[in-house]
Amino acid sequence: MKRRDFIKLGTTLPVATAFGALPDLAWPQQKRFAPRPGQWRAYEVTTQVEILKPAGVTKVWLPVPAINSDYQRSLDNKWSAPGGQARLVEDGKYGAKILAIEFPAGVAKPSVELVSRVQIQDRAVDWGKRAAAKENPAALKLWLQPTDLMPIDGIVRRTAEDAIKGKRGDRDKAQALFDWVVNNTHREPKTRGCGVGDIKAMLESGNLYGKCADLNALFVGLARAVGIPARDVYGVRLAPSAFGYKALSANSANISRAQHCRAEVYLADQGWSAMDPADVAKVMREETSDWIKSAAHPLVAAVKQGLFGSWEGNWLAFNLAHDVALPGAKGPKIGFFMYPNAETENERLDSLDPDNFKYVMSAREIKQA
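RE: above sequence
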């Protein structure tokens, strides 16, 4: 619906009616967003990589699903790399799984195919019930630490403390931080890939925009800065949204550019809880042809409420890793690992440059055994 159509419609409604309270019939495009766990779906995800301009020894690194939780079961992986040597490596700090392949000089067309199977389901916190403690307090310390791109002192801490002023309890503080990100940042479609996640630079410059790796990293960093364990979860969308949101969907036939990271916070009464302020920003910016500026808009309100505590199960999680050192790489660490990476004797290839680094990812739903 165009803005002028909405204004015309608004003349027939009570002036005091707020966006969030509009009846369904008053907004033809109004949608619901209410993920509920209970139905597992199985997917086969295929990643195919071809190095177009090999030089000397060529290396490829692919993210492999490493998450087993109440929303995902990582089942098995198969791969082929003609002429190369492949090994499955696990990051020692975060448990990320990396398929590392090395092709010797002379292999004319280095190529890799990885096929992973997972089961996924919706995830949602039941705010009416208190969950038993699920995490050892010592293990939570990891999720309170800074990373290279996510400091938790200085401007990050000051911003977080201002955002939670007057709030008590970790849930209310997490909600205040979630709302702060939604209200003060925006999605920028021109950002390459999923963004970088340099939250200090964002705050110092005042350029509070980007994509999921920027906006959700900001939320996670703010939470850690005030003592709430939080973490990014890096993955890829697999399928359309069951709730009709185009912005929250993927075309299963080609998910090569459907990477998306989500966030979690650890709440004392709930354990690890799903969060995704970046997807609220995505709906605001991309769900319609107009940029929706208000989070109270009926197309946004349900998503904003739902994504504080729930995720839709049309997405695969790879890992929780930051500052990843790719095994055997000459190039530097990467801030996060949800894209295929490759390196020739001469250079680290750009994962977002299909002219020089060709890969295709696809997904298909499969029958469960």
